[in-house]
């Protein structure tokens, strides 16, 4: 049973425009959410996180929004750059539970120059 | 950073395999994940202070060790075809969850 879902396997965006990657989760015990970026032949790299006490977290060009009632989060990248082309994974966990992360299946972002 | 060895490995069904991970300096927690083709990483288990500190939905033939220098091994016995995957190791500061996990590049295991 997939507790974290990324329903868009791929996304293409023009350079300079906004990229919006979406993620849904089913487990209401999740209270900590992360986005990872993965290039081929490399491990996932942490990008940004958010805890359930917030609904928005920004770090430079990257902003994560959390809608707890809808069990939905999104990652906004503005402006998108060709170097952002990678697979993006959404992950979730519980700060008071087991120390493991549940990952989505990933969205491949292609930023077109 | 986090290093893993070997990079690639080919085994046959029924064999045993050991994968290795060196954690980032200063980190004493190591987590292992399995990433099947087209899927996201799935948590196998975590080691903290040489003890298993949480386990995902994997059978006992998946076992691990953490050494005094905080490096770690993942052992898989009686390999099955479905064990073919990318195995990722991640290190972090001590639990709880919330400390950033740094991933290695992974070991690609193929079971024939």
Computed CA radius of gyration of chain B, to the nearest angstrom? 13 Å
Outline of chain B:
globular
Oligomer: heterodimer
What kind of sheet is the major sheet of chain B? 7 strands, mixed
Biggest sheet of chain A, in brief?
A: 6 strands, mixed
- Our estimate of the beta-strand percent of chain A is over 45%
Rounded to the nearest angstrom, the radius of gyration of chain A is 13 Å
Q: How confident overall, as mean pLDDT of chain B?
A: 92
Tell the overall outline of chain A. Answer: globular
Give the low-confidence spans of chain A: none
Helix count, DSSP H or I runs of 4 or more residues of chain B: 0
Helix-strand layout with pairing:
The complex is a heterodimer of chains A (113) and B (112).
Chain A: E1 4-5, E2 10-14, E3 19-25, E4 32-38, E5 45-51, E6 56-59, E7 62-67, E8 72-77, E9 86-93, E10 102-103, E11 107-112
Parallel strand pairs in A: 2-11
Antiparallel strand pairs in A: 1-3, 3-8, 4-5, 4-9, 6-7, 7-8, 9-10, 9-11
Chain B: E1 3-5, E2 8-11, E3 17-22, E4 29-35, E5 42-48, E6 51-55, E7 62-66, E8 72-76, E9 85-92, E10 102-103, E11 107-111
Parallel strand pairs in B: 2-11
Antiparallel strand pairs in B: 1-3, 3-8, 4-5, 4-9, 5-6, 7-8, 9-10, 9-11
Summarize the structure in words:
The complex is a heterodimer of chains A (113) and B (112). Chain A is globular. The model of chain A has no long low-confidence stretch (mean pLDDT 94). Chain A starts with a strand and ends with a strand. In chain A, a hairpin with a 6-residue loop joins strand 4 and strand 5. Chain A has 113 residues and is mainly beta. Chain B is mainly β. Helices cover 0% and strands 51% of the residues of chain B. Chain B contains no helices and 11 strands. In chain B, strands 2, 4, 5, 6, 9, 10 and 11 form a 7-stranded mixed beta sheet that branches. Chain B has a 4-stranded antiparallel beta sheet with strand order 1-3-8-7, with no helix packed on it. Chain B is globular, with a radius of gyration of 13 Å. Classes of the chains: A mainly beta (113), B mainly beta (112). The interface between A and B is medium-sized, with 28 and 28 residues.
């Amino acid at each position: 049973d997939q507790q974290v879902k990324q329903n868009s396997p791929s996304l293409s965006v023009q350079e300079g425009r906004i990229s919006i990657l979406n993620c849904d989760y089913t487990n209401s015990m999740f209270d900590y959410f992360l986005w990872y970026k993965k290039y081929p032949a490399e491990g996932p790299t942490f990008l940004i996180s958010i805890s359930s006490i917030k609904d928005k977290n920004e770090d430079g060009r990257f902003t994560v929004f959390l809608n707890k009632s809808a069990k939905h989060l999104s990652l906004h990248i503005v402006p998108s750059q060709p170097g952002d082309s990678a697979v993006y994974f959404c992950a979730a966990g519980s700060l008071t539970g087991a120390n493991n992360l549940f990952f989505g299946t990933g969205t491949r972002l292609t930023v077109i120059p | 950073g986090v290093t893993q060895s070997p990079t690639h490995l080919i085994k046959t069904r029924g064999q045993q395999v050991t994968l290795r991970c060196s954690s980032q300096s200063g980190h004493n927690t190591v987590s292992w994940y399995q990433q099947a083709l087209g899927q996201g990483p799935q948590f196998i288990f975590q080691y903290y202070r040489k003890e298993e500190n949480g386990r995902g939905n994997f059978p006992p033939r998946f076992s691990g060790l953490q050494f005094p220098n905080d490096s770690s091994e993942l052992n898989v016995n009686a390999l099955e075809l479905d064990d073919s995957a990318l195995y990722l190791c991640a290190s972090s500061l001590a639990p709880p969850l919330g400390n950033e996990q740094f991933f290695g590049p992974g070991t690609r295991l193929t079971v024939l």
